[in-house]
Amino acid sequence: MLKHILLATDGSAASDHAAAMAVDLARNFGAKLTALYAVDPYPYLGLGEVNSEGLNYYKQAAQEEAASAHAKVAALCQQGTPVAFTPVVVEESDVATGIVEYSQAEKADMIVLGSHGRTGIARLVLGSIATKVLAASTLPVLVAR
To answer: Total domain count for the chain?
Structure first.
């Protein structure tokens, strides 16, 4: 039985589809839902004050994106029978590692995330968060496409 579902969200269309699935699962199982927005570490350039301004802009933009993604999930949670929902932002590690480590620390029962469905060169160049999470997680992972 599911008691705690971790939704990894980035506000994309794929993530929105995963959010709808996660909210439905949480509603059906009476589980709590955590929506996690993971921020990639800032690429340090070592340029002193210029880098500081870039870091501040990067963090502000990430917080705004996280708030937007969380607002979409919150709206889904209020439709029909309300679902208990906690928004979280993780900034300490790369996205896949942040998702897996948070799920373990918070004792989630399942991870739900979207996949952009990239193939070929695009997948090689851009990588796949979903693939990395699947490889690293000891929990069940539901990938929505």
So the answer is: 1
Helical H segments across 30-144, by residue range: 49-78, 95-105, 120-126, 129-136
Name the nearest CA neighbour of 40 among 17, 65, 67, 68. Answer: 65
Closest CA to 144 of 49, 10, 4: 10
pTM given for the model? 0.87
Question: Which domain covers residue 102, as residue numbers?
Answer: 4-144
Provide the CATH number for the domain around residue 65.
3.40.50.620
**pLDDT tens sequence across 64-100:** 999 999 999 999 999 999 999 999 999 877 899 999 9
